[in-house]
Design brief:
407 residues, mainly alpha, 16 helices, 82% helix
Length: 407
């Protein structure tokens, strides 16, 4: 069951080569996950829905992040635990945690649907929907909410696939779904004139395809095998994995808290300014998605390193763990500096990809607010990148060290 080759190279191959093998597909997978929402917003912004459509998708986006936070917490935790088990030659407990994680992910998704569905108007209003955009936001949200179980299982399962030594399969799963979304968006929005509902249908269709590709993989796993009894949750084993994944949860929920606080202030103070409510909400919606792209690259770097870190902790190769952090830090700083230059030098061009504000009374205010937002709000993005990467690394490392200590 255990892949000897997989175990061998995690403990002996050069760290940069391992990072390239695992982090690149992880980054691409996370970027593709974000691309689902960004592509929708680009096509919506360039349609007759324009800036108000962007505002509508912007207020739905944090709710996607909430679902992702749980999915990545369970998935990354089970993936880290799988890698630790590989390092310790433990073939018994890993499938128990993975099967439990899949079941708990499904249950959590159903709970989120049950909570969000009856209170969708209040929740979307809380996240900044105005009377001009609330109808569009509900049209979009109704469809994507119905597919939350598929969306969360897809994200959870892809973390396991990467840790099982198949990052390319994970990347193919996400990329195929994203391509379908990109193809269907113009067909549904411009061809069929389905508006927000068309954008949502394109998104969930892509998610469904990604889920099916990921689902097929679990019949061809490398280092573990799932049986029906593994899907009966074993809380003691799953709790170990849960602690390993809590850093991913905190990372995502931090984005939600910041978005919520920011949107509340924008609504409150935007009403009394010449910008109004819709311009700030639309621009912040674009900014949050562009910011998420940068963060996902950084998170992808360190999550891609997770099998390397976890395995070498399990094998007690602590020098290789420290070396992995050093290379991850160098890559993170590089990404942060490149992003800072783009946000400071060409903010209007970045925002321009998301369409023109044709349905707003004062387009010049839109562009003015966009330039200020990107140049001020994202001026210290390099430091944010370093903090995110380091916090994920040390939370993973601390949890894994404690697991080894107890064993």
């Amino acid at each position: 069951m255990q892949s000897n080759e997989h175990i061998h190279y995690l403990g002996e191959e050069k760290i940069p080569k391992l990072m390239f093998k695992f982090s690149l597909p992880c980054i691409l997978s996370l970027l593709v996950s974000t691309l689902y929402n960004i592509v929708d917003q680009i096509f919506i912004g360039n349609s007759e829905l324009s800036a108000l459509g962007n505002a509508a998708t912007g207020v739905v986006f944090p709710i996607f992040i909430i679902a992702q936070a749980f999915a990545w917490c369970y998935g990354d935790g089970c993936a880290a635990y799988l890698s630790i088990c590989q390092g310790k030659r433990d073939t018994k407990n890993a499938p128990v945690s993975i099967g439990s994680g899949i079941t708990i992910t499904l249950l959590t998704s159903l709970i989120l649907v049950a909570v969000f569905l009856p209170f969708k108007t209040q929740i979307l209003t809380l996240f900044g929907a105005s009377e001009n955009s609330i109808g569009m936001a509900i049209d979009y949200f109704n469809i994507v909410l119905a597919f939350f179980p598929i969306f969360m299982l897809m994200n959870m399962m892809n973390s396991i696939i990467r840790a099982d030594g198949s990052p390319t399969w994970s990347m193919a799963s996400m990329l195929t779904g994203a391509l379908i979304n990109i193809i269907l968006d113009p067909v549904f929005i411009f061809g069929f004139h389905w508006g927000m509902q068309g954008a949502a249908l394109a998104t969930v269709t892509g998610q469904l395809v990604s889920f099916l590709i990921s689902f097929v993989y679990f019949f061809h796993t490398k280092t573990f095998r799932l049986t029906p009894q593994h899907f009966i949750p074993k809380i003691r084993i799953f709790f170990i994995a849960l602690k390993l994944g809590v850093s991913s949860f905190i990372t995502q929920m931090t984005i939600v808290v910041i978005s919520l606080a920011c949107n509340i202030m924008l609504v409150k103070y935007g009403m009394s300014s010449h910008y109004g409510v819709d311009i700030p909400i639309a621009i912040i919606g674009i900014e949050s998605k562009v910011f998420t792209v940068v963060m996902n690259i950084v998170v992808g770097i360190i999550l891609g390193c997770q099998p390397i870190i976890s395995y070498n902790y399990g094998a007690k190769h602590y020098k290789r763990v420290r070396l992995t952090y050093r290379y991850a830090l160098q890559a993170t700083i590089t990404i942060g500096l490149i992003a800072t230059l783009l946000f400071e030098l060409v903010p209007s061009q970045i925002v321009g990809m998301f369409g023109q504000p044709t349905n707003l009374p004062n387009p010049e205010d839109y562009w003015q607010f966009a330039d200020k937002t990107f140049r001020i709000f994202l001026s210290l993005v390099t430091f944010t990148c370093i903090i995110k990467m380091t916090s994920i690394f040390f939370r993973q490392s601390a949890n894994q060290f404690m697991q080894l200590f107890h064993h």
